Structures
1.
Amino acid sequence: MEHYTYKINIYGVVQGVGFRPFVYSLATKLGLKGTVSNGTSGVEIYINATQLEFEEFIKIVTNNPPPLAKIDNIDHFKVDNLIFDDFSIVPSDGSGDKSVKIPPDMFVCDDCKKELFDPENRRYKYGFTNCTNCGVRYSIIKNLPYDRHNTSMSEFEMCEACKNEYNDPSNRRYHAQPIGCFDCGPKLSFYINDKKVEFSQDECLQHAADQILNGKIVAVKGVGGYHLVCDATNEHAVSELRKRKRRPSKPFAIMAYDMAMVHSLACVSKIEEKYLISSQRPIVLLKSKPNAVAPSVAPNLSQLGIFLPYTPVHLLLLEILKRPIVATSANLSDEPLCIDLKSLKKLNSIYDAVLDHNREIINGCDDSVIKIAADHTLVLRRARGYAPAHIKLPFSLPCPVLGLGANQKNTIAIGFDKDVILSPHIGDLDGIESVKYFDSNIRTLRRVYDFDPKIVIHDKHPSYESTKYAKENFTNTKAVGHHYAHILSVMAQKNTTAKVLGVAFDGTGYGDDGTLWGGEFLVCDYDGFERVASLQNFVLLGGEKAIREPRRVALALLFDIYGKDAINLDHPAIKSFSSTELEILYTAWAKKINSPSTSSMGRLFDAVASLCGVSQVISFEGESGMLLEELFDPNITDSYTFEVKENKIIFLPMIKEILLEKEPIVAVSKFFHTIVKMIEEISKLYPMPLVLGGGVFQNGVLLELLFKNFPDLLFGEDIPPNDGGIALGQVASMMKTH
């Protein structure tokens, strides 16, 4: 049969996942000759084959790629005949437009884990064991293509044993870029009082474990940054960490050694277990068991965020400890994750010791967080293991687009043709260091992809740091509405091209009328939107202060209903203020002094939490909603009164009825059902696909009720519904639909 030369281009997550060794082994097995290489767009293959051989080759590549690979598309065509002596991996081509997808960091695979605990293996207890099927990727990449010289592993020259593995096609470390061992790879080090102690690798681990067992706090360098670690069963240690980190109540994440330990701590469904043991190793929110860990791990909450070890160092440490550990991000409030000793020193009043290593983190990356609601996956923070994210748009972009996201839970996105690349979670842009980190993420994506945006999209809020950054650094800018971006983000994920009814519920976002929106119903497509309904407006007494003090929101609503007489009510929200404060706040309400108007559903949650005596002051965003979830009783199905007038949902009748309720559980349960009724009422007026976007939809109770009532609703399961998805929506706003 006649032989031809075929050129094959494979696109997707195909670099850093063992694709070239896989192709080499397959071609050799099939007796084919040619070459495979990394390019700026993916993997490039030339083979000499008959038509039947070529079809068999493509079939196997398509149906059985390497475990960590994700193929988006395969192009192939015949070229002029080329002569090859054998099949080989050839040097990467770094020219051309860069569109290859950066592989995320992955957990340590079972084969490497087995070697880690095998006394006969040369990598026994080596804390940086990896192969083509696991280990660091995104966190060490400086540039594309993904080759060792383009990573922070370029600082480590391979020993002969590692070179032999790297160059052996039959070895699973064939072309594994982060390969190393005790002789040539990264090494652990240990610090006490910021002074390095000369320990062996084993001693570093043992002393870190000893510190933790003795109730101390240890900063442990991982893949994308440091964790602050302590014994999760030691109440003194956990409460001390809270005190030092100035984190009064926001839950800490727990790392458990294995699934047996997870089951001892929490109730786990099959789908939750699937995510826990997945190669991404996210933090999964689970229903906790009584007295499983110290009370201060997650105060007043029945959920624990638990994840499994994803590096050899974690496994080795937990093998010694044999107990769950708190593993929370090492950062100061409003600052990015610490990724080196210099940045970590800011936290030296928090930690007692440091377990460090000398592999440079190029790209910081926090842990991903998910929860399961109504059998649907809800990504709360998309980062390590899942990022950078790659989204295919339903329409093409007219030019390269940069989306700068919002101010909270920021991510950035670059878009070209039909592709969007969304950065890992960056965080809140509330400080100088956070803005620097934001800038470094922009520079990284621009450098790696040789990306030059022709249009830069920012939020409409003039005070957002991302907006200021756009204005200061680019001239080709465009503002896109916050809540419109929320809905577009979901539409882009779901490849929806129809006109939809978008429900955008969040804390606050800048509205087209200059007020703070957050309880919006928008009829949308990619060409624009119409605001067809929203919550009635109310005021935030003290502006930003009201976000941290639900009682201020509740007080404003009580003033709306009772005027100044509200001051005399016998109610927890009223009693939480002094008489002087009440007089001042009434004047502020009456004269609209530092009392911006809002239609925010997130702030309505806060008000209800205050009115039910659940929380008057909170220490982290979303705390009220989480506490209300705790009180929900599924056996209560009634709802409260509201009405729709001139496109406004008038909810003050509901507030009056809540005030008459004696049991907080009843009030909270009926409140959740009332929100569902509000959405039902508006959706009857606009019979079209229903799309949910915004941080309020992180609430598991609300999501379960909505999926029950609207089984076909559209919700972004892969990208956070909170502001972590705004950048995607911003880029999607530039799509050509005609």
2.
Amino acid sequence: MIRTSILSLLSVFLLLRTQAAPKHIPSVQPKIVLFLMLDELSSEQLFILRDKLSDGGFNKLLSGGAYFKNGIYPSGSNYAGTSITTLFTGAYPSTHGIITDRWYEQFKEKEVNALSGSPENQSISSSQLLCSTVYDELRRVYGDSAKTAAIGFTPDNLVWAMGKSSDNAYWIDTQTGHFVSARDTVENRDPIWVVEFNSKNVLDLYSEREWGPMNDLTEYHKYAFFREQMNNVSPFLFDLKKTKGDNPYSVVTRSPYGNKMVRDFAQSLMINENFGKDNIPDFLTINFNTYSSLSSGYNHFDPVNEDLLLRLDIEIAGMLKTLDKEIGLENVLIVTSGITAPGKYVTKIQEDDFGKFNGKKAAALLNLYLMAIHGQGKWVKAYYDGQFYLNHDLLEKSDLPLNEILKEAAEFLQQIHGVAYALPASVVIAASMNLPAMQSMKLTYHPKRSGDLLITLAPGWREELPDGRLISRKWINDRVPLIFYGWKITRQKHNAPVKMIDVAPTISSFLQIHYPNGCEGEAIPRLIR
């Protein structure tokens, strides 16, 4: 009798487990790919702050997913769009063409803006992109049945992810405090739910608040380890009220409430557009901030930036919980990565800086040098992001050997303080890939868009922009964290470098679609069970 009762209870238990099991069986392919793009997030931050992060946010992704500590981008440009395009095309700038935010087109003798085509054009477009993204390949297979979107703070960080069709790229307009998109025209308005979300004027509510530390200041990393430096620093407390003039909401968007609004809009989008509710995969990219320009030190471990990251961790934990409830995390592929931002701007040389370099002044000096040798004229046409463009018409009229002038110019630039390498483009093309500095320059060079002379600054040097701000120039490679979590992903940790061109083909493999048409990477092996 007892044995019969035990067997009956066991049968009921097994039946209940069998009935509940389908909920935890992953779908054949991810129902949603959720890509979390985080500005300036480092593996160092995740390690140092691990005990302060919640169990449901970053620590959940790190402990349950595949964590690559050293995701590597070629460092050629300080423009975030260059790295983002590399990430979603699986190609280097030498192939996808977004070498920086602007370049000089010799044939048309004009400046080209990567995002709009020309400086005068205010429209947003990815027309300068030379190959497809994962988004493009997903739409090629499923059309509009695959729901796609990208959400964040600036169009620069979104359209390069979505590729040729970026209608569903939404960003915060700091002039109105509303989300806007490239398709918001008289003929093609945003969906009703977007209009209703904007009508709530959420940033007006957040603008009435203040931002101060969520924890005791003595618990923050910089106070704990650099207490003497922080003795004369007052606890931060920011008034987030709207400012007068242009971009009145810019202050509040640089606070944790900016990330909160992005998260709320993303969840509204998933609910209203039924993301993950059928068997056709959807793709959503969300760009969050992990640094704030309100920070005086503009350092990752400044209390302001630490607080921003800790509060973002709570937002991500809430989003993961909602996704698990509505769709099941076993059906969601979550990819999390840091991206290369335009740079950390400061107004003075920091303790760990060696000096500053001014590209415009260097171009002017180079022009004077060439005039002294070869006669009057505007020998240097333009300078953008480490690239010097010479006047080809003047070179042809002078009947001087091009290689000789380029060699002279490179040797002159090489003598300027802070310049590690100055090379003619022809030398970069022919250079061996064994030297990391040459590899970085070569992978960022595009024959129709890059300059005649390319430079790399030495480690620790900053570049001075026309407005007086200083920007850190990248040296060799940027290293960022990369995490895969959720759908069929096995738990693992890697310290060895992984190329960020491998992310796009990896996602494509999971979605069972073609790699982007310019892809130079390969799917990362052994990620799924």
3.
Amino acid sequence: MIDSRVSLVIAAVGFALTTGLPMPLAGQTPMQLAQSGASAPGAGPVRLQPRRLVNPVLAPPQLAPALVTPTPDVLGPAAPTDGRGSAPVDVQTLQAVDNDSVGVIDDAEGGLGVDMWDGTDRTLVVQAIAMLPRNATSPTMRNLMRRLLLTRAMAPERTTPGPSLLSLRINALFDLGDLDSAMALISRAPIASTEEQMLLTEVESRFFQQDTAGACGKVRAAALEYKALYWQQAMAYCLALAGKTAEAALMSDILAERSDTVHPAFFAAMDRLSGSPPTTIDSLSAPSALYLSMLRTASIALPPDVANKATATITKAIALSPNAPLDLRLAAAESAAERGILASKILADIYSSVPFDAAALDVPLKQVEVEWGSRGRALLLRAAGRQNVPATRAEVLQAAFKMARAKGGARIFSVASQPMLMAMEPTSELAWFAGTAARILITVGEFSRARKWIELDLREGREKAPEKTDENARRNLWPLALLIGAEGSGEASAAMLRSWWQSQNQEDAGEKIIAARVFFSLLDAFDVTVPASLWAPLLGVQPAKGMRSPGSGILSSLRRAVAAGHKGEVVALSLLALGDAGPATNNLHAVNLSVQALRKVGLTMEAQRIALEAAVEAGL
């Protein structure tokens, strides 16, 4: 009965929204929608009956599970957009192929090749895309995922019923928080292939981007065809946005009868939009974009648990929500920036909203020694930003980076300080800062810029000790110089490797062992021979606690894909092997496997960059 009532309302108000005129329901006039004595529709709250209490812990309907910022010199921008995240539709040249073969980029734009799935079983592709890591912070991994999901490529033949690869790819991009790419891929979808899930993804993406006009345009059509509660709630919201207060109130009250399925946040927002006083939402875990948009429009504060189990996309939305408490926005902004979906400049802007007194800004390191966290990092970045002399700014950044490595949060500090590092030139006066600058820039994926600082360090070393042929090996940045291919780094000869080993921390044997294990393993992945005498001290060392290894299924599949030369499969399985942990020190087995595999299919630069990220993570 409720479904039919809602359907009647949707049919009526859909016409009203299209024409801009109020549309009476069968047997009623517009005036009958108002309460006795109420003012005209749109002027205030309109309710037909007392609303029932609803369960305060239920979450709204969620997208089914299915980031990615590109490295500029590897992958150009996604297709141009209209300013709201929507890319113009273009005519695809692929003919007589599965709709799953459409894409946004080709080889010239960073694609992995039209034949990247050639010879790969469709079932494996479906499973691999569904399992892609959603929370990886590695810039190289995010770049590879974006290219994998956006490449125009002939899809494996569909032999059995199952989900479309196109919808899986769109959902994966959505979950990664790369909404622009998701929308660009949606715009390429043939009209006939549009599915409810794909439409839901587009509507949610538009709500996340605060494109309520574009979202409501899609909602009007969807609500007439699909009957899920999501569309009914979205329709009520869109009516309220259009000023159709009476019709919105009618739909809201009908939905109130579903007291066991509709979250109170919906009714709180709808009441507020109709003119009622603001209310408090105590709990809203894993909200939809629809709910976040409603609460933002209604100026209702987000509850503390809104970030619990939040996806990348939700996290970014919270960071940008003016109705979120400052500490909640800070934590969300750092998380989103780490995942590469929130620009460093926006994070810096949010940092700038944290109030600090002059005394704290004058002695920031002393302050953060006792109070480390989001506010501490905000203080350090603010203090560094106040310095106009490059050397003085570099001193603050170096001390802050050292503290972040010791206390935790080195990655997010690197992301936050990226704009400052990009504005600094690697000059001889700042040679002492080269190590910190290079490590920060590698962490955030600015490899070309990092190389300049490393080469500065090498030049300084040659100028100070030109007669010592192995001096480069003793210098702090030599492992990174070798991996990045810096000019003047030399070769990984037995003599250079022994010199580096002897130069390592003699007081901390554990730290020396970790550095050597990572460095030698990475060299081995590039088929560089490390003398047996240097491996010998590592033979009896037990793996560190927490070391992880890819599952046997991934290992076996990756070996087979490499042997067959299946490029897309190798990329997907390498990403699965790395997982959310990425190129971390406790994930060295996966790092080596992925580096070797990517090299075998011609992605040497990507392999090199994963190795560099792993080296910096290990403290090299």
4.
Amino acid sequence: MNNEDLFKKVVSHCKEYGFVFPSSEIYDGLSAVYDYGQNGVELRNNIRQYWWKAMTQLQSNILGLDAAIFMHPKTWKASGHIDGFSDPMIDNKDSKKRYRADVLLEEHQEKLSAKAHKEVEKARARFGDSFDEAMYRTTNTRVVEYLNAIAHIDNTLKEGLETGNLGMIKALIEELGIVCPVSGTKNWTDVRQFNLMYSTNMSAVESGEENLYLRPETAQGIFVNFINVQKSGRTKIPFGIAQTGKVFRNEIVARQFIMRMKEFEQMELQFFCKPGSELEWYAYWKEQRLKWHLALGTEKNSYRYHDHVKLAHYANAAVDIEFNFPFGFKEVEGIHSRTDFDLSKHEEFSGKKLRYFDPETNESYIPYVVETSIGLDRMFLLTLCAAYQEEAVDGGEVRTVLKLHPALAPVKAAILPLVKKDGLPEMAEKIYNDLRFDFKLYIEDKDSIGKRYRRMDAIGTPFCITIDHDSIANEDVTIRYRDTMEQRRVKVSELRDILFKETGMSALLQKLACI
């Protein structure tokens, strides 16, 4: 199965099995907006809980927050969003489609990177164990040409954005011969900046009041509550504040399913530290966040770090954790050293002191901040892409299975009476009622047992518990393992302990703590 087919199947699977639906579909939908179905909302909640517990439970110096979506308009003036929260957009005159100019360039870089990688792999196969990749990348003419082209794009894009010379970016797109994916032509408009914030009014009737904005990020809610959390929590530097929540961005480029949406959810940590120590904490969180991903069992070579060439004006270090989606490596999480920019700006605009008094050194200072920010929806898509598999089974049948980590699975176990008579449904009901206080379960007696297994495989249920005629006499059941399809007999009294051990969040957190 090629990557394009895989992605189409994941998108189709999401709708068919109740993970993700197009929003307002009966009215032909709404661009870049999606709803999470019965299985999607459970998976999403489990991913969020894993992040939340890893932050606030495993870390003794991180506290939680849930700030309001609406904030005082000066918040966004201080943060720079009103003046500078925009993307460089370009239109194709033939297709009438609008694109982010920087994304078009990044996609061209991906193609160049893939070509360089292909050359390297060909050489590796040719030279075997004696192959020196580092030397080859600096001496092979083609590879050097590709890598220099990538660097040229980085440097030109950075200069154009930093100086506001958007003409440089259009000229670069034309120089590289980038075409519109729809029309296939190079008939481009000029590049211009487009602000991404949604605005509204406090009252139902506009009365000249300042605009309110739907927050485009959760970070500012943390910064304006820095003193409240620090004092009420009686915390000392270094410490962090974690928050999850909805954010809104007027994304013009809507594509790749839930990868880029107008309404999405962030999971963010702002970690406050002493000035001068921020790069040590940056390195710490860079490592810790990749461990969080790998604890789920995703292949390590599916991830990579991508250091920012163009840093935001407030940052002194920034890196993305990228995942190899079916459509290429894309950002899932960012780690940024934001210096003291945010607290300094809010102190300036509010007139309130946002400083920390260090009792050990008897000094007062504005803390520096290291941020980790992950998109819950992108993590959801990553999880499905990594889990989706089609496997040949006995008889030439192909089963579709989501090999989700059991702690993330929407349903932990299915209770399946073999037939709808002879007391089997009643025993299944009893087991269901006994376990439902601790686990999300599913109970069903329709169709053959094989068809029911396949439905559970398709939504990622790690265990199926089958009740047959021997179960009533022996007080035991057959438990089937999703990934191996192995079946074994266990006592009903053992089920709770098995499910706790295999599907509980605590086992996943223990694994994370040991990495």
